[in-house]
Amino acid sequence: MENRKIRIAITQGDTNSIGYEIIFKAFDDPTMLELCTPIIYGSPKIATYHRNALQMQVNFAVIDRAEDAHDGQLNILNCIDTDVKIELGIHTEEAGNAALKALDRAIDDCRQGEVDAMVTCPVDSSEAFRFSGQTRYIEDHTGEFDSALNIYVTNAMRLAVASGNVPLREVAASINEQHLTKIITTLHTAMRRDFGISNPRIALLSVNPGLELTPAEGSEEQAVLKPVVDKLKENSIQTFGPYVAENFFAAGKHTAFDAVLAMYYDQGMAAMRALSNEDGYRLTTGLPFVRTAPDHNCCMKLAGKGEADCSSLRKAIYAAIDTARNRRNYDIPLANPLKKLYKERREEGDKPRFAQAKPKSPVQ
To answer: 282 Cβ partners below 8 Å, 6+ apart?
Structure first.
């Protein structure tokens, strides 16, 4: 990051959705420009179309390279050479492909160190544009397949999910000791490196209901979860559980932990939505660079109406700034460890001084 202001790459997302609206609204607060230098990866023409449709007073500089970004104002890095038809509120293949062109350029600049973090505006999968999701797309294009982990953050908790996007009937089969150990280790590292928590406490939710005190013989709790918890504790990774989700959240136990690992998406997200009174964001850890995102979809029904809420995107930008700094502070000492200040003096042979017999005192 050198001594310059932190540069944040913000991808435009689906060009028919609310991406540009929430970006413009997020930086309507001038203090945002004091915290970072934003670079919107997209198209000046598309940005102008959205600005006019929303009747917003927004100024931006057009640049061709991230290194040309101007501090103190919005910068738009042109990633699209052809005209793109804008159809507000409608999923189209053209709008999806435009989003991916911007994402491709942002990934390249992140990997080359031209920017310090990436914030991605939403892109949805639809009948018009089949898409596996931006997290999977970034994994595939960085060679980090199956390494990324999304952490959902609100004022209530930090939450990760063990089984990913699989049908409920496949959840139990997808949870094994090796996979679970990898997920928890990644989550533990993220708590330390990305959030600056020196000794994080992680809670595991159970796969099956009602088996907290007496896990059934052969259940996932007995066969997989408890052995993993015990093994990780031996390696100084403070992991606890498994806890039955209903009892865990009803008793407010989540407040005693730095992160919660749910076994499947709805198990954790339903509670998070109910317990949180504000919008959150997503941090994707396990990638070679910082990536955050607002925790909502394209909200096509709001496109072009000026009603979209930018609070989740703003939090994602704050988180990108904080995480970039936290990682730098965490990595620098590890990259340059202190050298041993002195070597222990040895006597003849290989034995240290304290192992040698003391000489007898002269007779007085």
So the answer is: 150, 151, 152, 153, 292, 293, 294, 295, 316
